[in-house]
Specification:
single chain; 458 residues; mainly alpha; elongated
């Protein structure tokens, strides 16, 4: 279809306005408003079929295009998005306006599409639509916001960029927080509904494989949690009342069941959870203080996570929690949970995440209350740390990092026990033993480098 034919499309006008349009209109660069009814019936999640009500409001040609967005294959959906892109680009607002309800429903559905290229194109077309529709998009904000935030927290950087560009088209920077607060009830209900799903309830396992269902579940749940993490970023600049509104928002979403995601078998979910905990520690300490009994063992015991791609976020959570909330140690089982997992983590060369891990080990040791650190602790620490050097990846990749961590921690322990002569003598003895062991037990030239650098320090 060429642009001329698209411009001739006649569409029935929908004159129904939201009761809160004027309030929400002030939030956006070109105005956006509320959507006062629940667009998804009894559920906040998008429908899997094209609504008859939406069909009746559109010209037949546009009905065909929008129906394509509900097809299963990505090629058809991509083609339909490009057709809408052309239509939006070539049409004036009078022709575009009747499509907005159908577009909003389509956006909510396609924002969780399995194909990231579809999600990226969806947001690119959305940015174009926002530039044309302006005030006319206002009645759909509450319907869209939850899914918009999901795409702003997508696993794919391309989708995040496109969603952010659309967001900037709609909102001035100083209205972002107000817009989110305006939609907080819808966001909360949609996110809560997703968090209560399972791979089986989120997908029709009769139509997709279990692997596909798991992939979709992992992607959406991780995006929900990462969206929550990102929302903490706007709290620090808010008024006391706005801050209390956000804290209430998080309180109503988080419960004991939520923290089970920290133990999920799915990598992206754990990674997002670590990021969320780190963000809460830094920006919303009120939440963490309430959750310390549930969180302490889960975070301080996270050293059992053997997936290196999660470790940067994991360390963020551990360091933030242990340094900002010393009471966490009262709830953590140091001897049965934290230390056994920490020693195994060290012996395994941090499960190949040395680049992200070794720089944090000294910080972690410094966060441990001094009453828990004795000769046995120090001996086990250095013994397990030096065993990481005997692994293949330890010798080849992060030898310098291991030695640097060894020396930094040694200096910290000496400084801590400077008035305890016996402890300091044992530390020096321990240092020589641990430095010499690799020299006699490993093949050259790695042990020579380890020995030389250690002796240079001495």
């Amino acid at each position: 279809n060429n642009s001329n034919s698209k411009n001739k499309i006649k569409i029935k006008q929908n004159k129904k306005n939201s009761s809160s349009s004027s309030q929400a209109a002030a939030l956006l660069t070109n105005s956006f408003s509320s959507f006062s009814t629940n667009s998804f019936g009894t559920s906040n999640l998008p429908s899997s079929s094209f609504s008859v009500a939406l069909e009746l409001s559109l010209d037949q040609e546009l009905q065909v295009i929008f129906k394509k967005l509900w097809k299963k294959d990505s090629i058809t959906k991509t083609k339909a998005l490009h057709e809408l892109e052309t239509f939006f680009n070539d049409s004036d607002i009078d022709l575009i306006s009747p499509c907005l309800s159908a577009w909003s429903a389509a956006y909510c559905k396609l924002s969780i599409d399995e194909d990231w290229k579809v999600r990226e194109l969806l947001n690119s077309v959305f940015q174009l639509l926002l530039s044309k529709a302006k005030r006319k998009m206002a009645p759909h904000l509450k319907r869209l916001m939850s899914f918009w935030l999901l795409n702003k927290s997508d696993p794919r950087r391309e989708v995040i960029t496109a969603a952010n560009d659309a967001f900037k088209e709609a909102f001035p920077a100083n209205k972002y927080s107000d817009a989110v607060l305006f939609c907080k009830d819808e966001i909360k209900e949609t996110f809560k509904e997703y968090l209560n799903q399972t791979p089986q309830t989120m997908s029709n396992t009769k139509l997709v494989s279990q692997e596909q269902a798991n992939e979709k579940y992992e992607r959406i749940i991780s995006s929900v949690i990462l969206a929550l993490s990102n929302l903490t970023g706007i709290i620090t600049t808010e008024t006391d009342q706005q801050r209390q509104n956000y804290i209430q928002f998080f309180d109503e979403l988080l419960d004991v069941k939520f923290w089970k995601f920290l133990s999920s078998k799915m990598t992206l979910i754990r990674k997002s959870c670590y990021s969320f905990v780190g963000s809460l520690c830094e920006r919303v300490p009120e939440i963490i203080i309430k959750e310390l009994p549930s969180l302490s063992n889960l975070i301080l015991g996270a050293f059992s996570d053997q997936e290196p791609s999660t470790h940067k976020n994991m360390w963020q959570a551990i360091i933030q929690l242990s340094t900002r909330f010393p009471d966490c140690w009262k709830y953590a089982n140091l001897q049965k949970v934290v230390l056994p997992r920490f020693w195994a983590f060290l012996r395994a060369n941090c499960y190949a995440s040395g680049t992200n891990s070794y720089s944090n080990i000294t910080l972690f040791c410094k966060s441990i209350p001094k009453e828990y650190i004795d000769e046995k602790f120090i001996s086990q620490f250095f013994s397990n740390l030096c065993k990481s050097f005997t692994t293949e990846s330890g010798r080849i990749i992060v030898a310098d990092k291991i030695i640097e961590t060894f020396i930094d921690c040694y200096l910290y322990f000496i400084e801590t026990f400077v008035n305890n002569e016996t402890m300091c003598e044992n530390l020096l003895k321990n240092l020589f033993e641990e430095l010499l062991k690799p020299y006699f037990s490993q093949k050259p030239p790695c042990q020579v480098e380890f020995l030389e650098k250690g002796l240079s320090f001495i």
